[in-house]
Amino acid sequence: VKEEAKTDEQKPQPLSTTPTNSAEVEEVTVAKSAPPTTTVQSSVLVRFWNTTKEHATHYWDGMKLLAVEVRGSARLSKKIFRGEALTRRERHQLKRTVGDLFRLVPFAVFVIIPFMEILLPVAIYFFPGMMPSTFETIDKKKESCETLSRRPSFII
Predict the structure, then answer these.
(1) Phi and psi for 37 in degrees, rounded to 5?
(2) For 115, left (φ over 0), alpha (ψ -120 to 50), or beta?
(3) pTM more than 0.85
(4) Residue 62: exposed, middle, or buried by beta-carbon count in 10 A (0-12, 13-18, 19+)?
(5) DSSP string spanning 21-78?
(6) pLDDT tens readout for residues 12-24
(7) Are 98 and 70 in contact (CB under 8 A)?
(8) pLDDT 10s digits, 74-109
């Protein structure tokens, strides 16, 4: 008997041809015309989750790469303190890493404060050199290399 009651509740009720008042008509119309929103919401959530995961992975990889460069630069600074000369490549790496560490301070503000990373593209638009070099994407690196190759050699 209980199973029959459950199946009766699940069956849609037929509409009467002559409604008694307009409130019944509105309720029935709303119930019949409501679109399924769960698929739209789930696709938005999945896209948001994938984007968030992608950005978190990018920042994590950038931090690991920066840590590796800091270790290498610490070794280079020890070499300087011992009185040894640095090669041009080593000097360039040390200069780049120290610059990245100074750029990391304002960048860390955007990462640490919740939802502040929404404004990161605006800040990068106004201050393009703000991002540490280890956090650049491959496309951005290619773009900067192309920009450098188009400049006359006496400016570089």
Answers:
(1) -95, -5
(2) left
(3) no
(4) buried
(5) SHHHHHHHHHHHH----HHHHHHHHHHHHHHHHHHHHHHHHHHHHHHHHHHHHHHHHH
(6) 555 545 555 544 4
(7) no
(8) 999 999 999 999 999 999 999 999 998 888 888 788
